[in-house]
Amino acid sequence: MHIFNNGKYKSLHAAAAGELTQIESAVKKDKDFRPHYHLTTPTGLLNDPNGLIWDGEKYHVFYQWFPFDAIHGMKHWKHYTTQDFIHFTPAQDLIPDELFESHGCYSGGALLVGDNIACFYTGNTRRPSDNQRVPFQNLAIFDKNGKLLSKRPLIENAPQGYTEHFRDPKPYFTAEGKIRFVCGAQRENLTGTAVIFEMDNLEDTPRVIGELALPAFDNRNVFMWECPDLLKIKDNDVFIWSPQGKTREPHQFQNNYHATYAIGQLEGQTLNSTYIAELDQGFDFYAPQTVANVADRTILLAWIGQPDLTYPTDEYKWHSMLTMPRELRIEQGKIYQQPAREIYQNLTALQAVQVENTAEIAQLDRAYIQFDAQQQPFKLDFFHNEKGETLTLSYDGKLLCLDRAKTEQTDWMEKFDSQRYCEIEQLEQVEIFFDRSVCEIFLNRGEKAMTSRFFIRDRQNVVKSDRALRLEIAQPKAIEIK
């Protein structure tokens, strides 16, 4: 075991006595923004969900974690188990302590192999002579109780033809029972792609099968594919990934980086897609991953964040959270998504509130709201404080707009604009999950989704509407960690 402690490349093994407790005291000073029913980090920074798997009895949820500050330092894998996405139990974390992960355990996925959980991940290392990045693809084995049994490197360096940006292996089984994993990659010509590897078993040496071809995707300006996930939903092959560099557009692909999916049929290594779109059109959604080994449904989690953003919570030494678990389904050739049934099962009874102009709603900042837009325009202002800050959601009959211009934003947040749009005709059902400093919005039972952070301190729980609306209100159950 090595104890890494070099600036921001510091592992938990190097933590001084009482250091994390002191950071936790800074986190506890945040009285406005910590979520109640979204999984977040105890200290420091959270980003990509990793190693999501159902082991036959419970879910394992890992996520990228830097414990010591709200910055992208040395990444660990924080580890929990849960049966219902409400009650979470800490399990053994993946802590960088080997030379093949000397600068962090980057993202990856998991596969249930026999009675063990095989976690494939990228070891971030840097060559001492010139600080050049050298990526490793590694394998960590956990038992179902969440105990780390072993870890070893599988591949050192990127294959020929690719740069050092080669990462995020997501494994799956072939129909013949072989193990494959797909990695995000950058070619030497600085274009993004994904590369598939195959192993006969966990003791085997991975061999390159080839690139995943996606002819219908416009890859112009895209310099990297991150967090690839190749899966099936019913009879459809689905590829989910995060292309970096795609040109921003007025009403879609509005963020600096995006989370995208393609539906079609996989023939060899070519996905002949029939539909390609964003998964979420809010301000803050990235690096989604589906849960492996779930037979009857497809569950997805994502990072509520973006790689380049800072947030007001950084001053309290914590950054970001995961989405609620979402169930994916395919309707009319597109992915629809809504919170997992466990979330709905743990709502309090719906209560109706008639809003004619302004209404005060108890615990609005941790509430579930549902209403019928009736295909008619509306404008809703949520929350208010002495600074006049508010979050606005409006619809003009064809275009939905979420506007956080009148909320607290960092310079990095403002850099990428203050409005996000979603084109949707015949808008009927609107669902909003507020959780202190995040909202997840689902339209027409999951036809479109918008996930965003917002920051309003010392807020009043009021809503203002420009027309009469009947809101159904409930309270999601807070998660418990013990």
From TrEMBL:
GO MF terms, alphabetically ordered: beta-fructofuranosidase activity
Coiled-coil intervals: none
Signal peptide range: none
Role played: Enables the bacterium to metabolize sucrose as a sole carbon source.
Domain of life: Bacteria
NCBIfam families: scrB_fam
Gene name as annotated: scrB
Organism annotation: Actinobacillus porcinus
The keyword Cytoplasm is assigned to this record: yes
SMART domains: Glyco_32 (SM00640)
Catalysed reactions, semicolon-separated: Hydrolysis of terminal non-reducing beta-D-fructofuranoside residues in beta-D-fructofuranosides
Residue ranges of domain Glycosyl hydrolase family 32 N-terminal in the record: 38-339
Domain Glycosyl hydrolase family 32 C-terminal: 352-455
PANTHER family: BETA-FRUCTOSIDASE
Pathways per UniProt: Glycan biosynthesis; sucrose metabolism
Keywords noted in UniProt: Carbohydrate metabolism, Cytoplasm, Glycosidase, Hydrolase
Gene3D superfamilies found in the cross-reference section: Exo-inulinase, domain 1, Glycosyl hydrolase domain, family 43
Family per similarity comment: Belongs to the glycosyl hydrolase 32 family.
This enzyme's EC code(s): 3.2.1.26
Primary location: cytoplasm
Annotated protein name in UniProt: Sucrose-6-phosphate hydrolase
Subcellular localization: Cytoplasm
